[in-house]
Amino acid sequence: MLLPVCVAAQTLVQWNFNTPDSDNATGTTSPSTGTGTILAVGGTTAPTTTGFGRGNSNGGSTDPAADADDSGWPVSNFPVQGTADKTAGIEIQVSTLGYNQITVSWDQRHSNSSPANLILQYSTDGGANWIDSDAFAANAGDTWFNSRTKSFAAVTALNNNPNVRFRILAVLSGGAYAGSGGAYATTGNWRFDMVTVTGTPLPLPVSLVSFSGRAVGESVSLEWKTASEKNNSHFVVERAVDARTFESIGTVPGRGTSAVSQLYQYTDRQPEAGVNYYRLRQVDADGTVDYLRVISVETAGAFDPYPNPATDRVQVKGGRVRALMLHSLQGQLLGRSDSREIAIGHLPPGAYLLRTYLETGEFASRLVVKK
User: Whole-prediction pTM value?
Assistant: First the structure.
């Protein structure tokens, strides 16, 4: 195993609800960053384009937008007090594929008559089942409560999951009132801003510092360097001529666990003629396998025609040959073959140009015909 890189949390999705029209009464429920869905649930209603509230009122949210563009998303029409407990509010839908240590945060304004108490819930199965998380409460009305935050780092089922859901719901049991002392009313509203879900990219093996190869005579010399390793048993060197079908050609012992750079070398003494593709298969002590970078190396003289000079036929040794084309030195096409061999017996003695066409490019060689 190659040691993971420490990386910072990244925003998976965020809603600031703003539209750049200098009118904070208009807004959008499309994410300002990332991909996700936000919607009102449990019978509550919320706008999607017009009827938004000001994000800068009553002290304002943490949205850095200019006042004229700072929109907040209002949610209203809550159930009657004492009924439909923990059903009405908003839902956030997001994929956390590739991420762990999920965190949810938001700014929320409570009107005087809105529900003072709320519960944050999460679902790991697309909303089929919900689990209560943290409770929040307002101690004043017409006030923004900013940066309400919950880390779900301990809830591993939310990691790397395409079906994550969160809900912020009104708690309507127990005679809850808005914190300013105003009586609860179903027409009270919550106003949201800067609703954000973040995560940390899952640890991935560190890419090799380098992996290179070069032809040395009739061999290919390979060299690679790692930054650090953990429980690295060995590397398997693999080779292919088509960049797809790899076979093992050798093994190089790993250095176990190391926090310093390590250099490795391997020599392929019998490469195929033409282009050779090499891949590293890294194997942990417990048998876990990672496939690392692929490189290509062209062996010297791989596409030179032979024999040369020739009298009847010539061929090229290397690579996946698509076609051979024979030209005069003036560029006139004199012959073509769709294999790695071409007939030249009909040509008078002299010098010619043989072009070899591959899937990855073409090569030109000078050919001498003799009788």
Answer: 0.58
